[in-house]
Amino acid sequence: MNQADPQATAPAGALSHLKVLDLSRVLAGPWCTQMLADLGADVIKVERPGAGDDTRHWGPPFLKDADGNDTTQATYFTACNRNKRAITLDMAKPEGQALIRQLALQSDILVENFKVGGLKQYGLDFESLHAINPRLIYCSVTGFGQDGPYAERAGYDLMIQAMSGLMSITGEADATPGGGPMRVGVAVIDIFTGVYATSAILAALEVRHRTGQGQHIDMALLDVGMAVLGNQAAGYLNTGAVPQRQGNTHPSLAPYQTFPTLDGAMLLAVGNDGQFARFCQAAEHPEWASDPRFASNTLRVKHRDALIPALQALTQTRTTAQWVALLEDKAVPCGPINDLGQAFADAQVQARGLVVNQAVATVNTAQSAIKHIANIVTVASPLRLTATPPVLRRAPPSLGQHTEEVLAELGLDAAAMVALRAAGVV
């Protein structure tokens, strides 16, 4: 594991000149703002006093304290909130709204995922903040977008996986044991929405370089859910044929699926005829590559019912490790089907430094829920920039950890902080 020292002086990241006001919760918005934070932006996460982001409580599993016991802090929150400064403000109170406006005046980017129109009552909508800071890039993340018949509806990842058709092409076929629509094992629409939102924000920054003006970004989970259907959507839109679930097989490639082995299973992903020929040669069945049923990918897909049983009988004669060793120098994609423990123990994952262990600074605020946790482990950013790589500055923060620090930067003194706390604003 890589050890990240929160006291160490980190190099400036690619976005270290930017300030982000994060009014989002749960996953899609926080995923976006963590990407910006990893790239060096100063991200200020605003949460509800006493409660915070919903995902702080979405457990089990929970973070462990220094003695190895469960805390009340869910691990979910840590997936998308590192490198941020956390403050608590009650935006339902006029004083809280005024402080958020002050922060927006100093910010380059604002990300929020309230229901459509939800921030207008507080004077924190795009039009209101654009009037006082025309350079502000304002990104709204909702389930269904800012317009259309569903705009007022709340949207969640699982709902969008169902509505977009993603579940209809995920899982085993109805006639297969265990068949039926299946969700993806992570909230993939939320995560993709966070990535798309980051791309849109970076594009808006480029526009601002030319015009000096910010703009409103309208990100919808449904839009993203439809977009990431990729080749399956292209196939339907151009032929009218509705794709069906087919488990771990591929609708357009063969063999491209899981196969049983002597000690479990493996994944064989043949993407072209050359790979198939090399597989057949290594597997001591070179005649398959010239078989008129299997000589091209289109033919292999057409004659899948003959090809796959023959391959399944063959793959069960060796262990997964033996198949990987046999094929890895033949440029034939083949690999184990790992659980998360095996994946994080993989030599390549470790060599790439994909696990980071961040020490947690001692926190003395009354709201802190994680002050007894020694460290938090997260997955490293996959962004690899040679000159300005992602930087690790802060572990996922405790609730309200940086409230006094951030508000002091706005010019508030200790007496003002005491008054705000007494009024329940922070």
TrEMBL record:
Listed name of the protein: L-carnitine dehydratase/bile acid-inducible protein F
Gene Ontology molecular function terms on file: CoA-transferase activity
Alphabetical list of InterPro entries matching this protein: CoA-transferase_III_domain, CoA-Trfase_fam_III, CoA-Trfase_III_dom3_sf, CoA-Trfase_III_dom_1_sf
The entry's keywords: Transferase
Taxonomic superkingdom: Bacteria
Pfam annotation, one family: CoA_transf_3
Protein source organism: Albidiferax ferrireducens (strain ATCC BAA-621 / DSM 15236 / T118) (Rhodoferax ferrireducens)
SUPFAM superfamilies xrefs: CoA-transferase family III (CaiB/BaiF)
